[in-house]
Amino acid sequence: MKLHLASLGCARNLVDSETMLGHLVKSGWDITQEPSEADAIIINTCSFISDAINESIDTILELAKFKKNGNCKQLLVAGCLPERFREELAETLPEVDFFLGTGAYDQVAHILERHPARNKQICLLPNPEKASFPETDVPRISTSDTTAYVKIAEGCSRHCTYCIIPRLRGKHRSRPANDILHEARLLVQSGVKELTLVAQDTTYYGKDLFPPSNLAVLLTQLSEISEDIWLRFLYGHPESIDENVMKTIARHPNICSYFDIPIQHASNRILKKMGRNYSLDDLRKLYDTIRTTIPDAALRTTIITGFPGETEKDFSILMDFIQEIRFDHLGVFTYSDSNDLPSHKLPLPVDEHTANQRQDLLMNQQAVISAANNQEHIDKTYPVLIESRESDNVFIGRTFFQAPEVDGITFVSSRNLKLGDFVQTRIKNSFEYDLSGEPV
Ligand code: SF4
Predict the structure, then answer these.
(1) Is 274 in the pocket of ligand 1 (CB under 6 A)?
(2) Cβ–Cβ contacts within 10 Å for residue 339, how many?
């Protein structure tokens, strides 16, 4: 039986998709990239913001066509969309046969086998905290040969007023370190060269374990697997990142000095309304400490514009702070309102036009900063992880300061490089977001 899976949303969702594929391959399904050939189609969805909700629904309707024009007999929608909208979603999407919540990924093979032919929709929406981590005896179907995301925890115990995730994923649960190490070793043995640690809040790792642990300890254990790999973490939190993590990164060459820490805003007034318990001064101290500990540290962050109550003054504090820190990478989203969010009740909503205008102003400022930061790499030599071939004499790769999928890339001029190799590359040219160079 053939199966096609479309994975939407964040890196954490991709791990869930790869885990579902593992369960299905283990029970005899073949994976096809061609939806028209598939006997069953799965869409692993996202519902974090309204754009993601729209993309999920568009993808479902698009792939549902294969129930008429293809082999598809079973259409399954999994993840954050059914978790957020539950049975209400089933009514609006009659073409879908199964809805699987975030607590039931490990049931996917079972549900497709047990219900080959049915005349009513089936919703499996257990408590999200029932979600199991990737099992060590289920093969992880990695969607890349060179890089893989490793989930180190699930859920979130914070209460940011604009965020639905704690409701969709439950409270923070750290994954046992032995399971993470086991999966990491298998991935490295299979040839993967970069492991990117993900969770809702990676820097909160281990605080709920008995005995307690932390991200610095986990990174140290993982760095002992091989010197010839890169380790990286995404989705840190300003409140839970500490000097221990910074010093651990400074000590281990195979841990990328890369800090992805979404700050969301820089105005104390807005941070308070967002339920973020840190201030502009705290952020200054944080980036100061990072740059003192690791001078060439790469910094990524994410920002929300148009949050209820955001004034021109709040926004200019934000613009000034982004200019002051000069992040290497910046993601900017406009606030996405919904009546199931605490922030929905906040006064003084910001109109969409203003929110978009502020997003553009920030991104235009960042384009200038990014181009200037990239120029500083010219004539420097870095190991580049080669990931694909662009043309006869150009390969594509990334340096330690370029994370997969979200940051710029590096073009390497050569006729014969091996995918998965780290190639010492001298940077010759820089662009707004990308770089180019030659092997040395
Ligand atoms: S820390 Fe992140 S995942 Fe947790 S509630 Fe805040 S925004 Fe959502």
Answers:
(1) no
(2) 6
Q: pLDDT tens-digit profile of 327-346?
A: 999 999 999 999 999 999 99
Residue located via tokens 């492991």? 195
The CATH H-level (homologous superfamily) assignment of domain 2-127 is Methylthiotransferase, N-terminal domain (3.40.50.12160)
Please tell me whether residue 309 adopts helix, strand or coil conformation: coil
Atom of ligand 1 lying closest to residue 169 CA? 3
User: Where does the chain hold its CATH 3.80.30.20 domain(s)?
Assistant: 147-375
Q: Is the CB of 417 under 6 A from ligand 1?
A: no
Q: How far is CA 317 from CA 65, 269, 282, in A?
A: 48, 11, 14
pLDDT at 134 over 80: no
Please state the pTM of the whole predicted model: 0.95
What pLDDT, in 10s, does the model give residues 364-394? Answer: 999 999 999 999 999 999 999 999 999 999 9
Q: How many residues belong to the chain?
A: 440
CATH 3.40.50.12160 occupies which residues in the chain? 2-127
State whether CATH 2.40.50.140 applies to domain 381-439. yes
Among 10, 151, 200, the mutation site with the greatest number of ligand 1 atoms within 8 A of its Cβ is 200
Is residue 23 within 6 Å of ligand 1 at its C-beta?
no
Cα–ligand 1 centroid distance for 166 (angstroms): 7
The hierarchical CATH code for the domain 147-375 is 3.80.30.20
199 lines ligand 1 (CB under 6 A): no
Four-residue CA torsion sign, 24, 28, 31, 32: negative
Per-residue DSSP letter, 204: G
- List strand residue ranges (DSSP E) for 8-81, in order: 30-31, 40-45, 74-79
